[in-house]
Design a protein that fits this description.
Elements: H1 2-46, H2 48-71, H3 80-102
Helix pairs in contact: 1-2, 2-3
Length: 109
């Protein structure tokens, strides 16, 4: 009887822990999405041309990182710009995946 009660207690605590973690991740994703929207709005209100130019340059930089991530040889030394672009692309991809998984489920959209 004690073992069954312990297993039920463990199951309930794990379920509550997962629910709390899901809520925290969803709130974090909504906050991140809101910050990105605020940054886009603030930059657009200051200078639309600079916002478009900056977005284009950022897209080129991330595309360069994606190209190096997918086509770079396994051996050899990477240059610092290629490494920085690869890290930037990886961070952007992880952020996009995080927003896709968690921000789409929140009611902030």
């Amino acid at each position: 009887m004690r073992r069954a009660a312990k297993e039920v207690g463990d199951f309930l605590s794990e379920t509550v822990g997962e629910a709390v973690a899901e809520v925290i991740l969803s709130l974090l994703a909504c906050a991140l999405l809101g910050c990105l929207a605020l940054i886009a709005y603030a930059s657009w209100s200051v200078s639309p041309r600079l916002t478009i130019a900056g977005s284009g340059l950022l897209s080129l930089f991330l595309a360069h990182g994606a190209w190096h991530t997918l086509h770079a040889p396994a051996t050899g030394r990477r240059r610092s710009l290629a490494t920085l672009a690869t890290v930037g692309f990886t961070l952007a991809a992880v952020t996009a995946l995080f927003l896709l998984l968690y921000a789409t489920g929140c009611d902030c959209l």
